[in-house]
Design brief:
The protein has 215 residues and is of the alpha+beta class. 23% of the residues lie in helices and 13% in strands. Strand 1 and strand 2 form a beta hairpin. Bound molecules: zinc ion (ZN). Zinc ion binds next to helix 1.
Length: 215
């Protein structure tokens, strides 16, 4: 029958992570940041999961978030139940916080496995999207753009204050800030320190999805 294969296949066949993979979701938990993954993006940390503003946004869905298990699991096939429950619980909290604080009309959730399933980070993660009538999220799958950290930060602060959960991973200080030309890792970490966000940060302008006014 088309689409069916009853031969058992070892789970290793479904793994695509390179041997020397620097997992961005594991690194950020150890205080190792890049332009695409910064402490200021994190909106909630629980025992087994965390949530952050996504570094990539689709054209009409700014402020999209990711919910990620704390442990490194590549995909859904052998994902432990306890971590799965924790991720789902946080997905629900983020969706509700988004629906409460963003000007949006719905929420969509997506999770990708393997290259054919559009997975491109080899640590399981769930996308949480604010939705609007006619936003074309699925039709514009190839139209995502990288978003500057300053633009992400306003949405992160709004979601974090609504969630009111822990927002750090409990490490004393970053192990390494992303490379700055001419700086040693130590100098860079010492100068930048923790990227603690204040709630007064101005929102970057996004014309298609203004956040709901603070109440
Ligand atoms: Zn990882």
């Amino acid at each position: 029958m088309p689409g069916l294969d009853e031969r058992p296949i070892p789970l290793a066949t479904y793994r695509h992570q390179p041997d020397s993979y620097d997992c961005p979701f594991c690194l950020v938990q150890r205080g190792v940041f890049t332009e695409h993954n910064q402490l200021g993006d994190v909106v909630a940390v629980t025992e087994l999961a965390f949530a952050c503003i996504s570094p990539q946004w689709w054209p009409a869905n700014p402020g999209a978030a990711l919910v990620v298990p704390r442990g490194h699991h590549e995909n859904i096939y052998d994902f432990p139940a306890a971590a799965g429950h924790a991720v789902w619980d946080l997905v629900q909290q983020v969706a509700l916080a988004m629906r409460t604080t963003y000007v949006c009309e719905g929420i969509s959730i997506r999770q990708h496995n393997e290259p054919a399933g559009d997975q491109d980070v080899w640590h399981l993660h769930v996308h949480v999207f604010p939705r609007h009538r006619g936003d074309g999220l699925y039709e514009r799958h190839n139209k995502a753009r990288w978003v500057a950290s300053e633009e992400r930060a306003g949405y992160a602060d709004v979601l974090a204050s609504q969630l009111n959960l822990q927002r750090t991973f409990g490490v004393e200080r970053p192990a390494h800030i992303f490379a700055v030309p001419g700086d040693s890792a130590g100098d860079s970490a010492g100068r930048a320190g923790w990227l603690v966000r204040g709630s007064s940060r101005p929102m970057a302008s996004t014309s298609e999805c203004p956040r709901r006014a603070a109440r």
